[in-house]
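Quick one - inputs below.
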Amino acid sequence: MDGNDEQSCIDRVLRGEVNAFGPLVERYQKPIFNLMCRMAGSPDSAADLTQDTFIRAYQKLERFHPGKRFFPWLYSIGLNLARDFARKNTRDLKTGSTLDPESISGCNYPGDQHDSMCASLEFVRLEKALDELPLIYREALILRYHDECSMRDIAEALSLSLSAAKMRVHRGLEMLRENYKGGIHGTQKRSI
Amino acid sequence: MERKKDPFEQLAQGPSAKFENTPCENNENQEILALKRLIHSMPEKEAPAGLTESILSSLEPKIIPRWLLIYRWALRPRTVTFQPLKLVPAAMVLVLGLAIAIQFGPGREDRGGTGHEELIPVTFTLSYQRAERVSVVGSFNQWNPASHKMHQLGNRNTWVLELRLPAGRHEYAFLVDGKVVVADQSSPFYQSDGFGNRNSVLFVNRDEPANI
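Output:
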């Protein structure tokens, strides 16, 4: 689904076709759900927040600027909802691991079983290091290097200027390297 | 004793990623590159089954005002493509259209002299005793006695009318009480009308208004 397809879906939704929203949900539910898993912790809360994100986006769809990319706009809505959720629950946000043992065991890595286990351990270690980063730095890195977003899209998704988004990515990488090198030092409270 | 392998060394050779380093990032060290690759291959959780259906079932059809749909349509960026070769005939058609518009368009009358071109004020005066009504008839009003009626001044023997005429040559005469054609005695130029009468000839100059 490219930008034109997305725009076509949005146009149809605005003309009253609810089902035209389905392809957009299918396309972006996975990254939004994973964002919510990182933010909320429990899969149930993450699923609720994902649903709320899409419903909120649907309600505000006429405000979406034609010609822009849908995903950064959706992501910014999701991020705001997740922040509100965190404030209301005043909870320690350190529980949002997307890499539970079940998901790791399900990974199909190349190489023999030993390599696969090493890779899984590296992912766990990476997640711990990411988890110690402030939220904006962590999400900037994931948007850039996992979701392959452009800097402009990252800036829009995180409500930052373009230069601020570049700085977050650059600085986030440096911080991540330090965290990763230092290993797991226990949990720290993340700043929102 | 075997050296413990640096985790970044493993990662740099680790799970291959389609992620490409951007040019400005080429100078970054292996550790950073390894981390980028690791983030790229980080596994994701699948969204719960049935989430799409659950979301769609909770939505109501949108009712958007038509003006907003048109506004959004106008806001949408569009890409215009063209072939230079096709520009030549298009430019020719445009030039031809402009030429036709200039030649036959509504502005042509203005330039021709009968429309809204610059008009010069001209005052016609006639002294005539015992007249009930006086009109100016001429080439500028197709000799129509009803179109330019003169006004009586205080002494009731002097009739006056101010007109705005285009520059050039005009023939005219005064029509008294609808039946008597009187030439302007003050005009130095005359032209026979072919019926035994003389029409006065007026040359209107752009530079100064005329008093007849």
